[in-house]
């Protein structure tokens, strides 16, 4: 078993249940390859992550976000990276969400974090953990481990889809610097000002994102190549998978890193919404170059780049575009 269970040439639902059999694994890899060439988005079921863990992760995370503000303040972000961040709007307009983040590297000993070389310095800080709920830290660690294992399997399917040896990516992620993030979108009891949405349009910067979103609430939209916005509804028991800019570069532009956003709920829907993306990122010093010539004979921005250089470039490009570009590759 396994393969495409909902045929959609833009963002299919793919069952991973048969990925441990030779024939099923090839069929699943082919389906993933088609999806990544088309939109870079697909939904997975049959992934093997225990339902109980996903439910506990949601419950514990929601418990943190709905706890008293003074309790949450004790887990406030350090250097804008780990911990709680509240996103404010312009002027007196309130923000529409807050987020909590933890890095796989954030609980390493100080000397190991300091040795992360050219990785952006703000990503080398220690994780900040709340005191409550009591099982928050343990649950997040358990969920990180489950997402890491699933991501490693998906990366092997990526390798097959790209006609590479199945273990091509293994050594490039054996000291990965992945990030786990939870977004808490506030209940919208009033209609936001025109143009304000829960999460603005963007692409992910990295290689692979595995997203949990609530089954009963929508909002995620993906932009098609004609500029239309397509809803990507939550499928019970599933995760949404998408690739980021680094993976698009790695594939010579053959796979798509697609713009997406989170829109506001229907008028009168005052429910909050939680989404939990896991950003699976390679080792900070992995050197990456396109595995195939760039599509259409295009010239890539870099010939090769380390993961640390890539994210330093992205941070600089996004937050300080007026500065001269650094030479990379």
Automatic annotation (TrEMBL):
Record bears the keyword Lyase: no
Source species, domain of life: Bacteria
BP terms from Gene Ontology: antibiotic biosynthetic process
InterPro entries xrefs: DIOX_N, IPNS-like_FE2OG_OXY, IPNS-like_sf, Iron_ascorbate_oxido_reductase, Oxoglu/Fe-dep_dioxygenase_dom
A GO term, aspect molecular function: metal ion binding
Coiled coil: none
TM segment ranges: none
Keywords: Antibiotic biosynthesis, Dioxygenase, Iron, Metal-binding, Oxidoreductase
A Pfam family reported for this protein in Swiss-Prot or TrEMBL: DIOX_N
Pathway field: Antibiotic biosynthesis
Residue ranges annotated for the Fe2OG dioxygenase domain, each copy included: 175-282
Protein family per UniProt: Belongs to the iron/ascorbate-dependent oxidoreductase family.
Protein name: Isopenicillin N synthase-like dioxygenase
Lineage start: Bacteria, Bacillati, Actinomycetota, Actinomycetes, Pseudonocardiales
């Amino acid at each position: 078993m396994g393969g495409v269970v909902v045929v959609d040439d833009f963002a299919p639902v793919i069952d991973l249940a048969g990925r441990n059999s030779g024939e099923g694994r090839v069929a699943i890899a082919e389906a993933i390859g088609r999806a990544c060439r088309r939109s870079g988005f697909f939904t997975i079921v049959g992934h093997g992550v225990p339902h109980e863990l996903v439910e506990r992760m949601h419950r514990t995370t929601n418990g943190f976000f709905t706890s008293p503000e003074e309790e949450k303040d004790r887990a406030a972000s350090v250097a804008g990276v780990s911990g709680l961040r509240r996103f404010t709007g312009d002027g007196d307009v309130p923000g529409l969400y807050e987020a909590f983040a933890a890095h796989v590297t954030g609980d390493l000993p100080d000397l190991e974090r300091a040795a992360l070389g050219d990785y952006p310095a703000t990503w080398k800080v220690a994780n900040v953990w709340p005191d409550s709920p009591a099982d928050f830290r343990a649950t997040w660690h358990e969920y990180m481990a489950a997402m890491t294992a699933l991501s490693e399997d998906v990366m092997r399917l990526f390798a097959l889809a790209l006609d590479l040896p199945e273990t091509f990516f293994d050594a490039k992620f054996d000291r990965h610097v992945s990030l786990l993030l939870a977004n808490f979108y506030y209940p919208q009891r009033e209609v936001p000002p025109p143009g304000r949405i829960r999460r603005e349009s963007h692409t992910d910067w990295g290689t692979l994102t595995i997203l949990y979103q609530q089954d009963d609430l929508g909002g995620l939209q993906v932009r098609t190549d004609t500029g239309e916005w397509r809803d990507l509804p939550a499928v019970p028991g599933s995760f949404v998978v998408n690739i980021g800019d680094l993976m698009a570069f790695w594939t010579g532009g053959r796979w798509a890193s697609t713009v997406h956003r989170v829109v506001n709920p229907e008028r009168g829907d005052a429910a909050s919404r939680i989404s939990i993306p896991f950003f699976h990122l390679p080792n900070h010093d992995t050197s990456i170059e396109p595995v195939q010539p760039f599509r259409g004979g295009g010239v890539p921005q870099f010939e090769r780049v380390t993961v640390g250089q890539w994210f330093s470039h992205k941070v600089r490009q996004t937050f300080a575009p007026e500065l001269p570009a650094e030479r990379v590759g």
